[in-house]
Structures are given as C-alpha cells and as structure tokens.
Amino acid sequence: MKKIFISIAGRKIAYETKVFIIAEAGVNHNGSLKTALKLVDAAAAASADAIKFQTFHAHEVVTGAGKMAAYQRKNNGKTESQLVMLQRLELPEKFYQPIIQRCRKRKLIFLSTPHGGFSSVDWLQSLDVPAFKFGSGELTNLPLLQYAAKFKKPMILGTGMATLGEVAEAIKAIKLVGNKDIIILHATTNYPCPFNEVNLRAMQTMMQEFNILVGYSDHTPGDQVPVMAVALGACVIEKHFTLNKNMPGPDHKTSLEPKELKEMIDKIRRSEIILGSVQKKPNSSEMSIIRTVRKSLVALSDIKKGEKFSKENLGIKRPGTGLEPKLFFKVLGKKAKRNIQADLLITRADYV
Predict the structure, then answer these.
(1) How far apart are CA 339 and CA 191, in angstroms?
(2) Shortest CA distance to 231 belongs to which of 198, 196, 204?
(3) Pairing mode, if any, of strands 20-26 and 50-55?
(4) Which residues lie below 8 Å from residue 38, measured CB to CB, with a gap of 6+?
(5) With 0-12 CB in 10 A as exposed, 13-18 as middle and 19+ as buried, what is 183?
(6) Is the pLDDT of residue 212 over 70?
(7) pLDDT at 83
(8) Confidence class for position 69, pLDDT limits 50, 70, 90
(9) Neighbours of 175 (CB within 10 A)
(10) Cα(307)–Cα(13) distance, integer angstroms
(11) CA distances to 106, 118, 125 from 101, in Å
(12) 221 φ, ψ to 5°?
C-alpha cells in the first residue's frame, strides 16, 4: 500500500504514526455548557487527541414525523418524536467559543459533526474547524459531502450501514471536487453494537480496496474492540464517552465514563508499543543474548589431526561464538588440520 498521511491541526495521521483518538462527546452535554466543558476536561485528562460534538438545529435534521430509533427509545426510557428529543440536545451557538477556548487551553482538537446539513457546515467553517467529520447517516448524502469537501479540509466519514459500493461512491464524490484528504471509519450503527455485528475484518477490506486511511468508530461495550482495531491497523479510533452513564439521553448508557476512556487510551498506547516496527530484526536487548543462546559447531570427542569430521565427533552446542550450525553439513567429511579436544568450538582454520 502506498504511504499516505493527512494532517489535522498539525497532527499527522498515518498508518505509521500514533493512532488519532477522537473522544466522541456527541450530544452527551445534554444542552448544558457546564457539562460540555467538563467533557472537554475529561477528554484532555484521558489524553485524547480530539473531542467531537454535534452541530445542528433539530428542525434541520428530521421532520416532525420522524420516529426515535429503537436504541433511543430504550436508552431514553420513553417514546417521543426525534424532533422533540433532538431539540433538547442542540449545542447552542453561544456555547461554541467557550468550548473551543477550553479545547485550546487543554491542547485538544475541537471537532463537530455538521449534523444539520449545509448550514451546519457553514457554521463550522466560520469557526475554522480543522476537519469535517460526518456520521454514518450522511454517507449517502453526496450533495452535503461534496459541499463540505470544497473547503479543502480533511473529511472523516463513518461507514455504518453501508455497502462497499456505497463507500466507494462517497469517496468518488469527494474526490470529484478535488479533495483527496479522506479518512473512512468502519462502524456498525447499533447502540450498543453486539460483538457478532462488529465485523472488524471489513475494516481491512476497505484498507485494501480504497488505498486511503481507514479507522474505526466504536459502539460496542467496553474497550476490547477498539484495541483490537488498532492491532489490525486502524489509524483513527472514535469512541463515545460521558460524565455519567446514568444521565438522561440517548447515548449515555453506551458511552465510556472518564476513567474508562482513560483506560482505553492507555491500552491503545500500550498496543502501539507492542506492535512496534514492521522490520524483523534483533532488538537491542537481544544482541547481548544471541551469543549465549545460539549454538556453534563443536567437537563431541577428541579429534586427531587428519581425522574426518563425522556425526559421531561433530555436534552443535552453545555458545554461539563459533561457526554457525548451518555449516554442519559443509564440515562433515572434511579432515581436521590439527588435534581438537572434545567440547572445543570448531573454527574455519580447523578443517581442510
């Protein structure tokens, strides 16, 4: 695969760099600036790279006839229209500057999904966001994707519910307007997502198919799947988090709490250390051990000058400071040039 990278707010994202971790606050602020700022602090304390909210006015997202998804009814504990639910979860425009300022103070990249369509893109563009992140529900909204792509900022796309063909169509649409800075995130649009619906190998299929950066947006319980995604090559991880899972709202119950978010990020960073380099070579700590545990050609018994080396008098033992074992059959049948005592290592000067 050709080496590719994308830069977001000075942070290089590539398969060869540290995983870019997005702490998904989403609508878990519940319409409260105080809660939103606490979410920023929690994401920074967990060492996330970015925090992401959602930008919309409810009437721009859904008609009055729109019904709640099954997971929303379950997590909210009641049934109402999507419109009514989303009205409570809007992030007021007056909240943005305090949130962005807090992000800058905490060295956290501010992102938000333009969930409300063209006007949301315009609003975020006026705030000079460093990238546009679209949820899976917008993957087939090609007019919106192309509109945002014209601003020439990195585009991050969720791919839940999508076929490979639909993902390809979205990528093509963005590239048609001259934007090639695309990251796609494998995802399953189910909250929580059961493990048998994760299909993590599909992430690798997209890596091979599209030759662009691919990451993973997680909706499963816990942190096992995001860590596994990193092991399979994900360059971006997105995960919902909240201050308290018992808060009212559609996403809290399927989100990580701050301590859990920190634990997930710590595991990801350890995973990166464990994955290490693509090169297969001895580590520095192994260099001093090689001579001790590898083996060399050795005399199994006393060998007289002129005597031929045979399987009876030539063996392979530690240490690895002499001739390598791969020379065993080359030395067999050769004549000894000198008397060699048993248990001595054979040298090149010992045979003709």
Answers:
(1) 78
(2) 204
(3) parallel
(4) 243
(5) buried
(6) yes
(7) 74
(8) low
(9) 16
(10) 65
(11) 9, 25, 16
(12) -70, 145
Tokens encoding 36 = 């939103």
Angle at 188 between CA 269 and CA 200, to 5 degrees: 55
Average pLDDT rounded to a whole number, residues 283-304:
95
> Average pLDDT in the 192-208 region?
97
User: Angle 118-126/142-149 helices, nearest 10 degrees?
Assistant: 20
- H/E/C letters for each residue in the chain? CCCCEEEECCEEEECCCCCEEEEEEECCCCCCHHHHHHHHHHHHHCCCCEEEEEECCHHHHCCCCCECCHHHHHHHCCCCEHHHHHHCCCCCHHHHHHHHHHHHHCCCEEEEEECCCHHHHHHHHHCCCCCEEECHHHCCCHHHHHHHHCCCCCEEEECCCCCHHHHHHHHHHHHHCCCCCEEEEECCCCCCCCHHHCCCHHHHHHHHHHCCEEEEEECCCCCHHHHHHHHCCCCEEEEEECCCCCCCCCCHHHCECHHHHHHHHHHHHHHHHHHCCCCCCCCHHHHHHHHHHCCEEEECCCECCCCECCCCCEEEECCCCCCCHHHHHHHCCCEECCCECCCCECCHHHEC
Options 3.30.70.260, 3.40.50.1820, 3.40.1190.10, 3.90.1210.10; CATH for 284-350 is 3.90.1210.10
What residue has token string 């399953």?
Answer: 188
Please give the pLDDT value at position 85: 73
Radius of gyration of the chain measured on its C-alpha atoms:
30
What confidence score (pLDDT) does residue 349 get?
96
Determine contact, residues 242/32, Cβ cutoff 8 Å.
Answer: no
Q: Which residue has the tokens 């019904």?
A: 67
Superfamily of domain 17-275 in the CATH hierarchy? Aldolase class I (3.20.20.70)
- Which of the pair, 181 or 287, is modelled with greater confidence? 181
Residues of the chain with CATH 3.90.1210.10: 284-350
